[in-house]
Design goal:
This protein is about 25% helix and about 20% strand. It has about 230 residues and is α/β, with parallel strands linked by helices. A hairpin with a 7-residue loop joins β3 and β4. α2 packs across α3 and α4 crosses α5.
């Protein structure tokens, strides 16, 4: 029996997740895999032309509790979540997500390059954090892996979004937490890397991006590398 498509399924969508998520039915998502604003006023300066500021990236993070609640509504009770975050506001993310879903672990993505910052007065940042949500009802696929994940950061010239995550890392997480045909949800899609990774391994996806410039660049990347989506 063919599964009826969900709203927005299989199409990179220009939409505000706070609005579009309301169109999704309860308990329809098998995996939440997303890279929301960290609340650090991030601006990339690694290219000659900066990407500019990221929406909702101010330090208040007052949107977090409402986002966590709406995501919990659409996620299945046994769904896994992977939410990228930074140590700067880790407690705010843990509080908001932990209020609506059980946080199981904190994963560390170890990158191959150092970040920028205080070059003389601080240690060079070489990692990002990922909150892993699991009730324990859904088991991980394959062997037991470390909570330290090593994957090379995308080189600057290849970036189409300032915080774009490597596809091999996203593919790994998708395959650990879903079966073919299940639904992966990315409400902060950016370059649509999660959508591409999901489609490439036979998963369904729903992906929202609210900023038109990132949506357009992400769609162009998908057209060039995953043309069967169009």
């Amino acid at each position: 029996m063919q599964t009826r498509p969900l709203p927005y399924e299989g199409v990179p969508t220009l939409a505000d997740c706070f609005v579009a998520t309301e169109d999704l039915p309860d308990n329809c998502i098998d995996l939440v895999l997303t890279d929301p604003p960290y609340g650090v006023n991030y601006v990339s300066g690694r290219r000659k032309e900066s990407f500019g500021a990221i929406a909702n990236d101010g330090p208040a993070l007052d949107w977090l509790p409402a986002w966590a609640a709406s995501t919990a509504r659409v996620a299945k009770s046994a769904a896994h979540w992977y939410v990228f975050c930074s140590w700067h506001n880790l407690q705010a993310f843990k509080a908001a997500i932990g209020a609506v879903a059980p946080i199981k672990n904190l994963l560390v993505w170890e990158k191959n390059v150092w970040g920028m910052g205080d070059l003389a007065g601080d240690y060079a940042p070489q990692y990002e954090l990922i909150l892993f949500v699991s009730s324990g009802d859904r088991k991980l696929n394959g062997r037991r892996d470390s909570n330290i994940l090593r994957s090379k950061r995308i080189p600057g010239p290849e970036l189409v979004h300032p915080t774009q995550k490597p596809r091999d890392l996203l593919t790994f997480l998708i395959q650990k937490s879903t079966a073919p045909g299940e639904v992966v949800f990315d409400p902060f899609a950016g370059s649509f890397s999660t959508a591409r990774a999901a489609a490439d391994v036979g998963r369904r996806f729903i992906a929202f991006e609210k900023e038109r410039k990132h949506y357009l660049s992400g769609v162009e990347l998908l057209k060039s590398r995953s043309p069967r989506l169009f």
